[in-house]
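Just curious. Invent one:
>
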Amino acid sequence: MTWIKGTSSSLETLTSADDIYETHINQLRVSNPSSAVVGMATNSQYECDGTADDVQIQAAIDYVNGLGGGNIIIKGGTYALSTIVNLKTGVHLRGEGEITKLSFTGTTSGNAAITIPDGQSNCSMRDLWLFNGVADNTLYYTYGVKIKHSNRVVIDHCRVEGFGAMGVVAQSGDLTPEHYCQDVWITNNYVKDNGRNAISGGSAEDGIAISECKNAYVLNNTVDDYSLHGINLEGYWLENVIVEGNNITCTTRTAAQLSGRGILLGVTDKGGAVNEVCRNITIKNNNIHNLDLTNTYFNNSGNAYRTGAIIVACSNITNEVRNVEISDNKIWNCNGYYHAGIRVSGGNFVGNLKITGNQIDTITSVGGVGGHGIWIGGVSSLPSSKSIIMGNMIKNTDGSGVYLDAIPVTGYITDVSNTMVANNMI
């Protein structure tokens, strides 16, 4: 089988989370021998015929879950999912690569073809092609894979394609600690042409999204064609997240169908007394390129939506982003309104932000504003912390190589005095 993976000249296999990931996968293989087979053949334990095959697949999952866990092999073939399939604790779905196709025809808004419901653990999905089988897949706000507040979940070597909402999402939407997702691996997947509901005037969404999560690894994925963000790290709370070795681009979306960013790191304000925080985030060795972000479909108080290949932003001045490394990424051929290769903005308190070793080439701006390689503005450093912009290579930009914006942003605090800029090649 042939999989299209994220690529980086300096990254061929898993790196930062390699030991953790391989240990986890090996534990799953050893502790969960094959327990059931789903197929089109008459000798399969769970025989499918291409009509409402979700019934047989769910029956296999329920059976293996009842045994205490195990593996389910889904043989090659095209399977019809007319409604949600719920993956449960201890169950590991494994296909045979691109010849195992799951076609989801559900149309209920918010539903996902494969859902890991609340409170599940130690489950995975590997070597499957999951796609939206509805005739006009721009009409319905459905997801490919949705992970709710569960832990020890792996989505690996899957192709997820053509959904109206997000391709793969892990989120709880809840600030209660026990409801966070934990220990999530989204690795080696091809996530293509999702967020299609925006094309018909609906909501725009992402390729991959992580929020309200602790210990998440988004590694070596290819994300191609989306409407809002290639990879979205935005929620009420995020801790210990590594985004590495991914390839993010848009090869067929027109500017009218795309209004987002390559990677977004941000904190969503839930309101009340809770102080939302993102901390210990690494965005490293990603390729982000060929993004045409000139559409003004989205706007911010009447202003053109601020875009960038990598964005760090918050929605409220009480929120915090701490200990963020953005390093060794390659960004090229990106343009848009208020655009930058890497942009930090939006009234957030930023502590210990390191932007180092990135290669940024050909950043253009529409409307005469932006076009900077790196743009820092509308932020305030946390006490006793420093932002470092060092060792980046920046060329062919409409604006500055590195731009520190000291102009106050309405309602926010602006302080770039604690930002060190050194040894960049511009």
